[in-house]
Amino acid sequence: MKQFKLFLWIAGITIAETVLSVFVNIKGITPDLLLAFTIAYAAYERSLKPVVVIAVICGIIASAVGADEFVVIMIAFAVGAVITYMSYDAPHKPAGFIRAGIGTALITAVGGAVLYMIGALSFDVWYFLYNTVPEALINAALAMLIYAALTQCFDIKDTAKKLIIS
Description:
Blueprint: H1 2-23, H2 33-44, H3 48-66, H4 70-86, H5 96-120, H6 125-154, H7 156-165
Helix pairs in contact: 2-3, 2-4, 2-5, 2-6, 3-4, 4-5, 5-6
């Protein structure tokens, strides 16, 4: 059942991203829903194997839909997911939605800077501040919302058990 829900999530996010990329354009910035979903799922899941599988699947879809640099997108998705997954064992144990937001913001900022440097063969601080940073903040907010929805979607059975026991 969990795999079916993940399939529905990925299909829905992919459709939403392809449709929204036409209509939603905030100052030239299009939200990256697949990245936000991947990092939010990495913050939610407690097993590394499904995190890496979801990161690879979403990275392939994002590369196919967005037609960006395949290798850079795959590395960003995989590294971002693994780092977010590993942040669970941090000494201060940040909440899941905070890990999802921070992980997405960092990967968006670093990935955007790398993609810009590959395309322009230079680094422009103003471009980074006016385009990449707002995109990172938008994606972070989306990752936090997706994390909340993921917890509601996958923890329904546990919540029902707790209600019955109480």
